Fold this sequence. Notes:
Layout: E1 2-3, E2 10-11, H1 29-32, H2 43-52, H3 65-72, H4 74-141, E3 143-147, E4 159-164, H5 170-173, E5 181-185, E6 188-189, H6 193-200, E7 208-215, E8 218-225, E9 244-245, E10 248-255, E11 263-270, H7 275-278, E12 286-290, E13 293-294, H8 298-307, E14 313-320, E15 323-330, E16 332-333
Antiparallel strand pairs: 1-2, 3-4, 4-5, 5-6, 5-7, 7-8, 9-16, 10-11, 11-12, 12-13, 12-14, 14-15
Helix pairs in contact: 4-6
Amino acid sequence: xxxxxxxxxDISEKDRFCRNCGDPIAARAxxxxxxxxxxxxxxxxxxxxxxxxxxxIKFYEPPSVAYAVAQSSPxxxxxxxxxxxxxxxxxxxxxxxLLLSIIMAIGVTVGVNSRRSRTPYQSEQSAASRRSHQExxxxxxxxxxxxxxxxxxxxxxxxxxxxxxxxxxxxALGSIRAGDVLxxxxxxxxxNLNELAAALDPLxxxxxVPVKLYRDGEIVASRIKTADxxxxxxxxxxxPKDQGFLGLTETxxxxxxxxxxxxxxxxxxxIDNSPADLMGLQSGDVIIEFQGxxxxxxxxxxxxxxxxxxxxxxxxxxYRGNTEQTIEIVLGHR
Length: 334
């Protein structure tokens, strides 16, 4: 109990005004705590919270029924826990794609690096295997093999003969020409260098076997006697000063000779004042014979020219347009 400052009447602790004169009661320290910022650990605010929940206070307001039921209902607690699980659930799904992306990126990087590290070795193996097959074919058959161009020979599979190694090689003695496509040997079809090398493997040195060739649109049959696969054939070693020179710096294969399916070698560029230039050969001329031997590839033409001696005469047959011509050229020095 306290006394009113104005009239001295008794005032209870719950009153805020004097019941006798209406004079306001001075605020107490506990009541001043309502103006403080809420802090659960503050004993003043905790005291105010407990006081505000006291039903005996004059200005006490009970909570709404729906709020009270919601706070005390087990279903509400269950919904809250389910919500927490839902949040955790979606957190996992948000993080999982990120983890999967990182794992996939690491896997791709490792795979690419591994493939890059293997590529040089595999390329080296492939090149070594190809060189081995070429050497086997050169030693056994005496010609330089190459792959068949699908644009030049549509629908034809086999091994292209780019040039002969010499005029006394097994291929030359078997009437095989540069520009032919070897399609069969010893009754076995060959479509590439691997199959030809495999067909040669069981053959003994000196074995004479049948061959089939695609030449100028026709299939030609012949026979060839194989040489030792392990040793290269003896080729004539001609020093450069003893090699013939014609003066053609660039040539291409050309099909077809007018009225036939034969190939020739087209001149692209002639060196000024060279034997070819002095004798009238021009760009666009298609050479079909050199010294009486058929010419179907630039490799074979170069071999024939180098085999001829300087200052020797060579008959060259060629086409200019639709006209066949033959000239005699004195070869120069290299």
